[in-house]
Amino acid sequence: MHIDAQPFPYTCDLAHTALVIIDMQRDFIEPGGFGETLGNDVALLEAIVPACQAVLQAWRNAGGLVVHTREAHAADLSDCPPSKRLRGNPSLRIGDMGPMGRILVAGEPGNQIVPALAPVPGEWVIDKPGKGAFYATGLHEKLQQAGISHLLFMGVTTEVCVQTSMREANDRGYDCLLLEDCTESYFPHFKTAAVDMLRAQGGIIGWTGWGASVVAALQAHDKQNC
Q1: Out of 52, 80, 161, 176, which one is annotated catalytic?
Q2: pTM score, two decimals?
Q3: pLDDT higher than threshold 80 for residue 225
Q4: Which of 9, 80, 126, 147 could form a disulfide with 73 if both were Cys (CB 3.0 to 4.6 A apart)?
Q5: Does 176 qualify as catalytic in the annotation?
Q6: Is 191 a catalytic residue?
């Protein structure tokens, strides 16, 4: 399967590729969540949901593996270092009670993925205590067992959890593609810088492309296999 991308086309085999959706959680995306309590405009993140939904549906229709991640901590915060919880001066901290339950605590309403992108049976859901999807999650081992060598990334935020996860994946030998219209930051110039960094120097971390290109490639793949 060939996908239009930068700095050059991205090639992958559907059977060995996973779609990884990073942290599309209510606490980050919906009004009243943790992201908004930090003073951010969550509408910027909410705007990418339709593009993510289009890619997700096409990927599901093609039978591809889907991985959802959530930044989530144990109820006793034993997996949340004090340095993470106490940094800065937010009005609410991880573990505090917010409008959608305890912030970034597994099982709380705000910790769930937005309904438009909610996992369906058979899709993987990875709760991660850090920014990256590979830290303390066992994701690499699961992907290796499934024969996955290529990863397509969507989600938020571009310069934090998405970029961290993509860099972790690159170090573990995966060929990675980030979908620019399916990722966003509370700070648009941070997204621009992160995207430029990832694809610089011939794709030093990976490729960048667009959701429509993935959908088109999947449609072409389906026709070839009819």
Answers
A1: 161
A2: 0.97
A3: no
A4: 80
A5: no
A6: no
What is the overall mean pLDDT for the chain? 96
Q: Measured between alpha carbons, how far is 3 from 112 in angstroms, rounded to an integer? A: 31
Q: State how far Cα 90 lies from the chain centre.
A: 24
What residue has token string 């919880």? 85
Q: At what angle do helices 211-224 and 49-62 cross, to 10 degrees?
A: 20
The token pair that represents 34 in the structure block:
């943790």
CA–CA gap between residue 101 and residue 104 (Å, rounded):
9
Q: Which of 12, 80, 128, 182 is catalytic?
A: 128
Both tokens assigned to 204: 């030093």
DSSP readout, 27-42? Answer: HHHSTTSHHHHTT--T
Dihedral, CA of residue 56, residue 104, residue 44 and residue 179, to nearest 10: -40
